[in-house]
Design goal:
By secondary structure, the chain is an all-alpha fold. Among the domains are: 4-64, lambda repressor-like DNA-binding domains (434 Repressor (Amino-terminal Domain), Orthogonal Bundle); 103-242, Tetratricopeptide repeat domain (Serine Threonine Protein Phosphatase 5, Tetratricopeptide repeat), CATH 1.25.40. The protein is built from 21 helices and no strands. It is globular, with a radius of gyration of 23 Å.
Length: 405
């Protein structure tokens, strides 16, 4: 067993492994402030609290004091980097939580693996915390490549959580670092991918279009995967500008160059994106959307994550609504409402928008319109101007329809 001082880090690691917030673990018996002090080591637990927390986590009390199998960060990192085992990453998380005075480069490498673990599982709070620390370590080390990589992914994560203003700051910075330091094309391209997505979210569509075109040209001789992401990014920007012809042209190029055997996950993600863009077209292209969605479902049945399963449900609900299968749309929406949502900010807002539209067609017009107005205001205040414009358009169309429809 370890000493009592290991209780706080072990408690935090166990909570994060189960995807619980401090409030969820604290429950009604203790405060989140007290739980935070326990995790930091500022307070020692009482016997009653140990028993309570063990019950909440569904573990034996000894779990708070058992040392992780790997005794050093170097050993845990080596084991985690050499396998796809989630158990090895969880062991690395445990070791990292108690590691002190380790080499900053070693900590950066460990956090890079841990961040990907949280990202795949849709645990955005944990992912964001990792990326914030990664960016801080990279700045302390003054290594441009690490600064660019951590800022690029931090920008993407902030965009996914709805923090467009901060996301734009880090995306611009990552791109500047890549250009000034003359980093490899892959680093500059990833910085541009982040920048284009954030600019589009913030409603800066001309800037996003310009950078998307720069990106496509930059990666013309790079790997199929990188060219696919660049073309996908350009298609998304064109779609948001209402340029459906160019959007579909970029999509067709992306789909043509990527072999499912090379990168099955990206292949399936591209089809989810294609289905989404088809549904956002004016008018929505439900036939192609249905085809793309079926292909993505088949692929993700083999390689999908819980996040991607939820993304499929969102698109199934949207497709059902556009085909006026309102009962199916409500059923898919309800299924998501009953699960822990792992979706990014845009998909969450679109899910709420769909709920509003369903309320209107279900006869709850006043409630649906009020909800749309609130969503529009919320996204505008959060500086997600492109998303806000999308909601206002939905609201305007709903207001034009007679109340009896």
């Amino acid at each position: 067993m370890a000493t009592e001082s290991s209780f706080g880090p072990r408690l935090k690691a166990l909570r994060q492994q189960q995807g619980l917030s401090q409030a969820a673990l604290a429950g009604d018996e203790i405060s989140t402030g007290y739980l935070s002090r326990l995790e930091s080591g500022a307070r020692d637990p009482t016997e009653r609290v140990i028993v309570y927390l063990a019950e909440r986590l569904g573990v034996d009390r000894s779990a708070f004091y058992i040392q992780p199998r790997s005794s050093s960060l170097t050993q845990a990192l080596t084991l985690a980097a050499s396998t796809d085992s989630g158990e090895a990453i969880e062991d690395l998380i445990d070791v990292f939580a108690t590691a002190r005075d380790e080499d900053p480069l070693l900590r950066w490498q460990a956090l890079w693996l841990i961040e990907r673990y949280w990202r795949v599982r849709g645990e955005q709070a944990e992912e964001l915390a990792c990326l914030e620390e990664l960016a801080s370590i990279a700045d302390d080390l003054e290594l441009p490549a690490l600064q660019c990589r951590s800022r690029s992914w931090l920008a993407r994560c902030l965009r996914a959580t709805g923090e467009s203003a901060r996301a734009l700051e880090f995306a611009v910075s990552a791109h500047q670092v890549a250009k000034q330091a003359g980093l490899p094309v892959s680093d500059e391209a990833n910085a541009l991918l982040a920048l284009v997505s954030v600019e589009a979210e913030a409603g800066r569509l001309p800037d996003a279009r310009s950078h998307a075109e720069e990106l496509v040209e930059l990666v013309a001789d790079e790997s199929a995967a990188l060219r696919t992401e660049a073309l996908w990014s350009a298609a998304t920007v064109c779609s948001r500008q209402g340029d459906d012809d160019d959007a579909h042209a970029f999509l067709r190029q992306a789909i043509a160059i990527l072999d499912s055997r090379v990168d099955p996950v990206l292949w399936a993600r591209l089809r989810l994106a294609a289905a989404s863009l088809c549904l956002q077209a004016s008018p929505p292209s439900t036939g192609p959307a249905h085809t793309y969605l079926k292909e993505a479902e088949a692929a993700f049945a083999l390689v999908g994550t819980p996040v991607q399963q939820q993304e499929i449900l969102v698109l199934q609900a949207q497709l059902a609504f556009e085909e006026k299968r309102y009962g199916d749309a409500r059923a898919a929406h309800s299924q998501l409402s009953n699960d822990k949502l792992l979706l990014n900010y845009r998909d969450r807002i679109r899910l709420q928008t769909l709920d509003s539209r369903l309320l209107i067609v279900e006869g709850h017009r006043k409630e649906g319109l009020a909800q749309l107005r609130q969503l529009g205001e919320d996204t505008r205040r959060a500086a997600n101007l492109d998303l806000a414009a999308e909601i206002w358009q939905v609201l305007a169309e709903a207001l034009e329809q007679p109340a009896s429809d």
